[in-house]
Amino acid sequence: MNFEFGLRLLLTVDAYLNAVAFYEKNGFRFMNAEDNDPHTRLMYYDLMDIVA
After folding, report:
1. What does the alpha-carbon distance between residue 47 and residue 49 come to, in Å, rounded to a whole number?
2. Residue 30, exposed/middle/buried by CB under 10 A (0-12, 13-18, 19+)?
3. DSSP states along 1-52
4. Torsion sign, CA atoms 30, 31, 37, 40
5. What angle do CA 23, 36, 49 make, to 5 degrees?
6. Residue 25: its pLDDT value, please?
């Protein structure tokens, strides 16, 4: 049998507002624009950016 599968890895963080610039500088992106938490922002880094 021939099995094939795909896998995508994302790193996620709840970045404190004073650390958002650090994460953006290191390639993290916002998960969504409607983040309502006044203390943190949900961000992600796609590990495919390293491979591609």
Report:
1. 5
2. middle
3. ---------EEEEEEEGGGHHHHHHTT-EES-S----SSEEEEEEETHHHH-
4. negative
5. 30
6. 97
Q: Which two structure tokens, joined as six digits, stand for 9?
A: 């890895």
Structure token pair of residue 40? 């943190």
- Residue 44 and residue 10 in contact, taking contact as beta carbons nearer than 8 Å: yes
Bridge partners of 45, per DSSP, are 11
- pLDDT for the residue numbered 34: 87
| Contacts with 32 (C-beta within 8 Å, 6 or more apart), sequence order | 42
pLDDT score recorded for residue 52: 60
pTM of the model: 0.79
